[in-house]
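Input:
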Amino acid sequence: MNWLLDKKRPICPQIAEKLCVLIASGEIGAGDRLMSVRDVALNAGVTPNTVQKSFEMLEQQGVIYSRRGAGWFVSENVDVAKNVFNELVHSKTVAYLNDMESLGLGKKEIINIIKEFRYE
Amino acid sequence: MSEILRCVGLTKNYGGLRALDNLSLSIESGRIIGLLGPNGAGKTTLIKMINGLLQPTSGTITINGLAPCTTTKQLVSYLPDVSYLNNWMTVEQIVDMFTDFYADFRPQLAYEMISRLGIDRKLRLKTLSKGNKEKVCLILVMSRNAMLYVLDEPIAGVDPATRDYIISTIINNYNPAASVLISTHLISDIESVLDEVIFIQNGMITMHDSVDNIRSQHNMSVDEYFREVFRW
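Output:
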């Protein structure tokens, strides 16, 4: 997967967000074993300490849990991950709408643009 | 987490020039730290002192509680800013030499990385390109099982794909008991792999903070922040 990290923001919450997206979309299922800290670090090109912190953050939120010696697992309850996902969708939508509104477009026009939009 | 490196009131004069000015610093284990600063800030001077190649004019420097000596050299794996290896030797001979020289050297790991980067181990160093030579030097340094890796400008001469490989090498060799100190100008290439950065200017530390703190406080990448702080 492509991690596409924004270097202007702290990396730690971004890793947590990406993992929530993977969990919310079902790419990593409830109860599944997560990639190891080192694998995520290598994949995303960030330091293992940051990934460790992200995992601990997610553990506190109840998204994942660790089993001694066995690694990290996704909790049975994926609601928190889904909430994070929904918040991301919301904030990205708001950002897009703000951009479009600053171009002087109303909501209806924006909806039309999206409907008619085709990748070239 | 234990303290690996400690500098207290470190000062170095070169004749009338003050290269380091009352510098104090503490580095813990398990961290990857960027040593960043403009040219002539004192980065290499500090690094040479960590390795006992220069003596401080005043102040103290300790590695794992000891002043730089033969014991600390067993703990520190050092990549100098200029190559010091014999050009007539083959890659294999140099690996052999390092195996003899350092008790913590892992030749198998070195060969793994050398073949992964497509370097012929039978070749003499002088026939390698500048970039390939740098790769060999870095591989040798990272193949030791040290407590502190000190890398002076490790990625300046290599292509971007190799830079990525080097960065993954650093992550891959990550050991919670060891720390890596990297001096560089190429901040944007390595900033995602850093835990902390130290900004150094005119021989003084102007900042020592975690990278995520910098990003959340200033809403910019470490690279952008560097450009702002050291703008002419």
